[in-house]
Structures are given as structure tokens and as C-alpha cells.
Amino acid sequence: MRSLIGKPVRLTISDPWDFGTVHGSGPFPATVVDVPRDTGNRRGGALLVRLEKPLWYQGNFCEHLIATPAPGGDGLEKLGPSGRLDCSFISISPQGARSASPFDLTWWRGWGTLRGVIEGAWLESPSEENDRAGGASPSPTTRGDD
User: Fold this and answer.
1) What is the DSSP letter of 122?
2) Distance between CA atoms of residues 1 and 136, nearest Å
3) What's the rounded Cα separation, in Å, for the pair 106 and 81?
4) Measuring CA to CA, how many Å separate 135 from each of 31, 129, 131?
5) Of the candidates 37, 58, 46, 49, which has an alpha carbon nearest to the alpha carbon of residue 12?
6) Which residues sit opposite 117 in a β-bridge?
């Protein structure tokens, strides 16, 4: 899981609906900043992600989010192979993100929970890679004497 640190991801937020009213549903580009060293005590693990463009939501600054798999869903280890995963996201302060234990949410009392999907932005289909490289597939060349 620690191999995900530094990887680009995209977040699409579906709940709460008023978040989408204010900011749209995304996708919101982000980067994996940290992964807990020991995920044995959390089913499916967690990720600390940092949004490329921080958002204000309900009077709070949202830049760092803890992503955890949705209950009953796959664990974050499925993020690499499958690309998409239903998650809950908890907004934490920049100070919390820089702390020695950013995944300790014992202080959390319910604010800042978002639900949606996280997907690996480094997992692009061949057609997306081709589009970025210059467009359509190369066409066969014709000879000048045809």
C-alpha cells in the first residue's frame, strides 16, 4: 500500500448533495500523501490525500482528506488493479495532515464526511494515452504513386 504514496488520484463526490450544488461532483485531482504503516487494525486501510485545489465547504477549508473504503466494499488494495473504489472521505486540518498520526480520528465528531469514488489517475486506458499523445490512431500511409 505504501507504493501508492505520490500517486495521482481523482475523487468524485456524490454525497452530500449540497457539496455537489456548491462545487460539482468532480472529478477533483488529488495526490496520495500518506498511507498508514500498519493497516491491520483497519479493514481495507486508509489513504491521506491532498486536493490539488483546496475547497471551502460549510465554512471549513478542505485540502486534506482521509479516504476509507465504503463499508461492505473492497479494500484500498483494490485501487491499483480495478482503478475505482467507493469511499468515505473525512476532511482533516493541514495541521492534522502534518502531525505524527494523521490517521488518528479519535477527535472526529462527524463533520466533513463526504462519500464518493476514488480512482487511480495513473491507470489510463490506451485510448486516453493516445489522445494525450496527439490524437487519433496513426492512419496507414499512402504511396505517392497510387
Assistant:
1) T
2) 35
3) 31
4) 27, 9, 4
5) 49
6) 12, 86
Is 128's pLDDT higher than 70? Answer: no
> Tens digit of pLDDT for each residue in 51-92?
999 998 888 889 999 999 888 777 777 776 557 889 999 999
Q: pTM value? A: 0.76
Q: How far apart are CA 1 and CA 46, in angstroms?
A: 9
Strands (E), the chain: 8-15, 28-34, 47-57, 60-69, 84-92, 113-120
Q: What's the sign of the alpha-carbon dihedral 102, 104, 110, 113? A: positive
Nearest one of 118, 136, 114 to 127, comparing CA atoms = 136
CA 120 to mean position of chain CA atoms? 7
User: Which amino acid appears at position 107 of this protein?
Assistant: W
Q: How many residues does the chain have?
A: 146
Q: Exposed, middle or buried by CB within 10 Å (0-12, 13-18, 19+), for 71?
A: exposed
Give the C-alpha distances (Å, rounded to integers) separating 98 from 18, 29, 110. 29, 20, 21
